[in-house]
Fold this sequence. Notes:
By secondary structure, this protein is mainly α. Helices cover 65% and strands 0% of the residues. It has a domain at 76-130. It is built from six helices and no strands.
Amino acid sequence: TLDLDTDVSQSFDSLFGKESDDVPVESLELPTASTESPAETAPAASSDTLDLDTDVSQSFDSLFGKDSDDLPLEDATTSTRTLAEIYFGQGVYEEAIRIYKDLIRKSPDDASLQKRLAEIEKARNDKSNFG
Length: 131
């Protein structure tokens, strides 16, 4: 293996040069400080530019709607109603019914909740009668 190491090392040196050949001595010195002038700073944004940004943003919003960050978060009732509908879609009627009963307890005047509860209970009863 010593001969192999020597052969590999010699081949490497012949292809890429020896380690001492890699870096010329003069490049090891640190560069001296340059006498270049500092970079110029950009002028501050004018009010015209800021107005244009606002106009573009408003135009974008009118075409595509507001960003999701600007929209109100979904309330807990909708999220729970959504979960109940997921349960219903999966055939887990008891959980859907439980959630709708809880929603009705929180909002007893909401007729749409009572109507949907009746529909889910009917679907559950139909399934148990035919299923």
